[in-house]
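Thread title: Can someone regenerate the structure for this chain?

I was given the following input by a collaborator and told the matching structure tokens would be attached. They weren't. Posting the sequence so someone can regenerate them.
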Amino acid sequence: MKFLEEYRDPAAAKKLRRAIQAATTKPWTIMEVCGGQTHTIVKYGLEELLPQGIELLHGPGCPVCVTPLEMIDKAIRIASQPDVIFCSFGDMIRVPGSHRDLSAVKAAGGDVRIVYSPLDSLQIAQEHPDKSVVFFAVGFETTAPANAMAVWQAKRRGLENFSMLVSQVLVPPAMTAILSSPSHRVQGFLAAGHVCAVMGYEEYIPLAQRFNVPIVVTGFEPLDLLEGIYRCICMLEAGRSGVENQYSRVVSRPGNLPARRLIEDVFEVTDRTWRGIGMIPRSGLGLAPSYARFDAERRFDLSDIHVCESPACISGQILQGLKKPRECPAFGRQCTPRTPLGATMVSGEGACAAYYHYSPPSDCLACRLAPGAADGGRTGCKPA
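Best answer:
Regenerated them for you:
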């Protein structure tokens, strides 16, 4: 806990809060590009600590949230077939498809298994040569190295009964799409630290220059985010674009070079549809031709699956930072974690889930950052 608590220190948070207040002379809108960051912001009430006029927008930083409904239905189709073992991380099991989810397939007798690594799926494929083992490869650049390693190992071991349903997406093209929209409200970005730990931040530099925006690579603890916000506001106030690295204890400019080389070997950049947003050119990864035989979409007949989103769900507007979850008429009523209309409610990193689970935070800064304060409860302290 020592190394967590030092990034949740109330005295340090108050110092950063005062620095932000001193630096701010204008209203600004800043978007965080990670669902984990969104949960920290909501859980600890960080936006309420900021000066009036500073607004935090929640971007498309949850890979479960942006996995298209069509891809969920494809996963359900595959998992429902006999002689298939369908493997997935746990956060995809309850994401609703058009009519049901993967947990319903499992309840009906389908062999759906939660794994903790794509390499677990390889072990299952080796132990069950008579079965077709499919792994649901979902995520941003963060999960791409392990998913690439699984396919690379499958080819090396000759595991022809293994395949992967790929829904890998890339962050910079999504940021580009948001900034290219005439309705966007983003003036600065907090970039996702774990993505940059893999990919580095060199590709953000031309993006910052093209759109004249500041981008701050930021971590996930309260002090990380407060410092990232402070740096972004300082750049905005100075009229300066570019990229700064708040998360230097983890992120380097070039990133993880061996991981990047593996991704480039196994995957190729492709167009990709984002749930609630639509198709973003060159925003995803698909298996390269030399690994195409491990593509589950090619192995199974899925060409007839075409679906439409629920008109009651405004997750697309939430993912683009145009609206907040509480602005949705269905929020907390028709749409709850038990009866989700969209993935932003069911996902552990979704913005809607964050707003639903965390009650209004305490007025006391020390209470918000204290151990055990994750429930947002009050402790009777005086307001900060």
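The first strand starts at residue 28 and ends at 32.
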